Amino acid sequence: MGLLKDYVIEQAEKKNKVPSEWLTDVLDKIDSCTLATHVGKFTHPDSKISIYNTDRDVCAGYVSSSNSLCQTDIVVNAAYLATASILLKELEDGQVVLAHFQKRTDFLAAELAEFGIDMEKYADMVENISAVVYPDKTEGILKQVYFPVEDSYKVLTVLPSSSLFLTLGMKLQAMRKNYKECNEEKSAKYGQPRAMIPNLTAITFGGTKPQNISALNSRYGKAGRLLPALPPVWSVRNVRLPKRNFFGEVISGKNIQFELNNLYGLFTAEWNNQQIRNSIKNIVDSIVDDVIHRADEIIMLEAGWSDKFSRLPEHQKIWLDIQFIEWKYVNMEWLEETGRDFGRWMAKAVCAIKENNKMLLGDGETAFLAERLCSRLKEELR
Questions:
Q1: 78-92, 137-151, 217-231: least confident range
Q2: pLDDT tens readout for residues 191-215
Q3: How many CB atoms lie within 10 A of CB 317?
């Protein structure tokens, strides 16, 4: 069964109704729903304003509802929340029922036909999808600013996009889920690149009755998330200087144990397909990012620090000591030699994951590892 059919049957059973009757009754109330991208209640609970912005103008440099793929919100009386809920139900193609209504898709028509809703009834429902007209006036309970226009001022209402705000929450939730799966050894995503956005602030609307604000708020209203908008806080730490070899002293296997374990599993896998090769590349590039970051910390130190370490290879001194900045562009041999250092160190570190391990990475793998760092160093020089 399809996602819509499963949902209808499940909801009808909860109400002790026949699925076709429940669905028809719910969709007959579509005209009680108002589409919106900006809901005044997010600013003030007594606001009556809702705006459905369908403009697709691109605001260069800014994220807005007009240039983002954000869900349409629905303002509806709590008594008709079931109607809003089914309109926001996601189907197999990743689009919600509302989007199919707006596009008059044959797919949705076929889904509804299974419950006895014919094309004429479907057409009526499409026509009942209504949107509020952009208001000419604002409300005194909402925040306003006087914006200068030529020799006068225009009153503007500060009204954030609820659709954009709630879609952001969904994206962050998906990121958290992906991050967790990529760290679970039993997950199919284990070892894949993952990302997290820290220091988020939670905010709720509607208290114990989020459905009184909007349909999206009712669905995702446990807590909205706000991104941090603060200057970065830099932690002060001692920079470890290499005496003989940057690789193994500043960057050690312990720093990247997780990545090395994943690389070992990929290099010893029975298959060698494109997916595995891409995973290896992504993990190596992640390690290279760490290498560049730690190297930049040393490069920012006072020139001449490497004079104290006679055993540090000349090519690594050129790379890490700013006193040799001009040499970097005169002779690129230092770059190739540094890449080979990285390749040999990485190959040895991967093979050392298992005790008494006899696996060896060949010249091809070592050259690949070296090339990933060389490629990044060349980008740094541009």
A1: 217-231
A2: 788 888 888 888 888 877 787 888 8
A3: 19
Q: How far is CA 339 from CA 212, 247, 333, 381, in A?
A: 60, 11, 10, 15
Q: Give bridge partners of residue 144 from the DSSP assignment.
A: 157
- Of 297, 307, 312, the C-alpha closest to 249 is 312
pTM for this entry? 0.57
Which residue has 């005790």 as its token pair? 355
pLDDT tens for residues 319-370? Answer: 999 999 888 888 889 999 999 999 999 998 888 887 766 677 888 889 999 9
Both tokens of residue 178?
């992906």
For residue 254, give the DSSP letter.
G
Give the tokens for residue 224: 């909205």
Residue 217 near residue 192 (C-beta atoms within 8 A): no
Place of tokens 């391990």: 357
- Could you give the C-alpha distances from 27 to 24, 93, 105, 121, in angstroms and in order? 5, 21, 16, 10
**Non-local CB neighbours of 184 within 8 Å, separated by 6+ positions:** 190
In this predicted structure, the answer to whether residue 316 has a pLDDT above a threshold of 90 is yes
Note every long-range contact of 300-303, with CB atoms under 8 Å and residues 24 or more positions apart, other chains counting.
301/239, 301/241
Q: Does residue 211 contact residue 227 with C-beta atoms inside 8 Å? A: no
For 70, phi and psi rounded to 5 degrees?
Answer: -110, 150
- Tell me which DSSP letter residue 153 carries: E
Torsions phi, psi for 288 (to 5 deg): -60, -40
Reading phi first (left if > 0) and then psi (alpha if -120 to 50, else beta), residue 355 is in beta
Alpha helix ranges (H) inside 28-161: 81-87, 97-103, 106-113, 119-128
The residue with greater pLDDT, 284 or 273, is: 284
DSSP H helix total and E strand total for the chain: 15, 8
Q: Let me know how long the chain is.
A: 382
Compute the chain's Rg from CA coordinates.
Answer: 29
DSSP 3-state percent helix, strand, coil across the chain (nearest 5):
50, 10, 40
d(CA 8, CA 3): 9
154 three-state secondary structure: strand
